């Protein structure tokens, strides 16, 4: 088991958290400079992947509370990124779909994500990138296993 301790401190965890925070902040700044609000990316990606959904599905897919989902969708609808419609068979359900403007934002996200990834992995060999991806996937699986 890998433990990187210096004077009793787990430096691996601290370093990983520091890198994750810098990545999140850098990503938010990059998205913001192109007019994309950070909270919207998860919903845009969910709708891109799953197509139109009802609000409850968006909450589940994005792992956010229904109240947060409603708040995000209110802003996204106001910004012209999504449209909402009641479901005729179940008037309590709200159907959500991307607008053309929402699809344009996804295209911008794709471009930015590609550029960010290229910058983050600059200097890594193909083998190192593959190995790193494998490590991240295993860490994700470990987190999912222990958080059940």
Notes on the structure:
The chain is of the alpha+beta class. It has a domain at 37-113: Winged helix-like DNA-binding domain superfamily/Winged helix DNA-binding domain (Arc Repressor Mutant, subunit A), CATH 1.10.10. Helices cover 66% and strands 14% of the residues. It is built from six helices and five strands, in the order ββααβααββαα. The strands form two sheets. The protein has a three-stranded antiparallel sheet. Strands 1-2 form a two-stranded antiparallel sheet. A hairpin with a 2-residue loop joins β1 and β2 (9-10). The model has no long low-confidence stretch (mean pLDDT 90).
Kindly list the characteristics that best describe this protein.
148 residues, alpha+beta, Arc Repressor Mutant, subunit A, 3-stranded antiparallel β-sheet, two-stranded antiparallel ribbon, 6 helices, 66% helix
> Main β-sheet: number of strands, strand sense, barrel status?
3 strands, antiparallel
Beta content comes to 5-15%
Topology-level CATH name of one domain = Arc Repressor Mutant, subunit A
CATH superfamily of one domain: Winged helix-like DNA-binding domain superfamily/Winged helix DNA-binding domain
Question: What structural category arises from helix and sheet content?
Answer: alpha+beta
- What is the number of beta strands? 5
**Helical content band:** 55-70%
In spatial order, strands of the major sheet run: 3-5-4
What's the N-to-C terminus distance?
A: 22 Å
Radius of gyration: 19 Å
Provide the succession of SSEs.
Answer: EEHHEHHEEHH
- Mean model confidence by pLDDT: 90
Structural shape? globular
């Amino acid at each position: 088991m890998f433990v990187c301790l210096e004077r009793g401190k787990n430096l691996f965890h601290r370093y990983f958290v520091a890198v994750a925070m810098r990545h999140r902040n850098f990503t938010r700044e990059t998205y913001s400079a192109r007019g994309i609000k950070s909270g919207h990316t998860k919903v845009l990606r969910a709708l891109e992947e799953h197509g139109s959904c009802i609000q409850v599905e968006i909450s589940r897919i994005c792992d956010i509370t229904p109240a947060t989902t409603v708040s995000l969708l209110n802003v996204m609808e106001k910004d012209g990124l999504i449209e909402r419609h009641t479901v005729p068979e179940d008037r309590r359900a709200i159907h959500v779909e991307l607008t053309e403007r929402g699809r344009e934002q996804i295209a911008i996200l794709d471009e930015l994500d590609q550029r960010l990834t290229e910058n983050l992995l600059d200097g890594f060999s193909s083998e190192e990138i593959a190995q790193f991806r494998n490590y991240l996937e295993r860490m994700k699986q470990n987190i999912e296993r222990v958080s059940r």
